[in-house]
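Structure tokens please, single chain.
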Amino acid sequence: MAPHRVPVKNHGLAACVAAAWALALFLTPARSQTVYLWTGGSGGSGDAWRNGNHWSPAAPASGPGAAAIAAFATNGSASVIGINLNDGRGNTQEIGCIELLSGPDRIINNSSVSAGGMLMLNGTGGKLLVNAGETSTLALSDGPSRTMSVHFATAGEVNVVHAGARVLLSTKLDGTNGFTKTGRGMFELSASNAIGGPVVVAGGALLLASANGPALGSASSVRIDAGAELRLGASDQLGNGTGLILNGGTFLAGTATAGFAETLGTLTLSASSTIDLGAGFAQRSLSFADSSAIAWEEGAVLTITNWRGVAGDEGSAARLLFGAGGLSTAQLAQIRFADQGVTGAVLTGPDGALTPIPEAPVRSGALALLAFIAWRERRRIANLLRWRTSPRASGRNSRSGDCRWGRVPSGRIRNPAR
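Here you go.
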């Protein structure tokens, strides 16, 4: 009789499968919202957004709404797409996400001629703006006669996937939860904004280039991760209380050709990072709040490039200021001036200007000079050492009590008794 086999359940395997399935669901972007693909329509002077026939599938009379994704690819020739924000439906247009898949540049603006309004981005799968076009630009802007503010309803992600792509906001951006910039492309803010909360540059570049006020004046902090850049395109782009957190990235403060002056909050160094003051010769300055109480990552190095002190030409200086005592001794030891080849810094003057530690080049020069002199005088030094260790060097003349050995001119030892 065949032995009775008892089925054994592999609970470990079942648990692994369940965990993998849950992880896959967690990592898969939420795409339950309806995707409306742009198919065409009039330019920015009309209400193209709210014409349902301009979308596939056909959108409601109000156009893609809060639970939808508005996607743009090669379909439709209109490069400017208008949203009439004052047509009796209220001054707010809600959309889950705007996505540029490919195709020509697209500009979305307020086509109303009577009132300004708001484009509210509610977010889809954690993303507020997605740009997947390899060389395309997705722009959200004011209309010809009326403004259109862009509101981030929740903290989300501005993902500019390709290095040659760009998302441009030339209108006001607001919200209290901040945002994260990802992808290899550029996100450019060219207007004064009231965005609050933390801003994270996790990839690519975030360019601040507002000509009429700070681009990130209300942000609580800006963090720059490894491989990412924060670029200044003009002066006064950050709030005086906005903290800068360098987490492996680069703060490129030299894109303004006419020079700049920027005042920020405290500086935090979480990983080895770089501050580049730019290769131009106009006067540039970064002023930080007292950061001496901020904990910097032990062993991390802050590299400063294109620094120019005031000793040579104050009018073309590129400086960092922390105020007197604004950095601790340990923090100063973590700073490296790449162009000068010096590690270590000091704060000088009443404004606490960061400068390379002066002792380093002086000490190395002095040691080199001593080494050269010792090499040149090596024979004389050797003879002198032999005389000092000779047993007869300690002998005394009993009649005079003086040393029997005479002077030692020119490295030669002479015995006057001979």
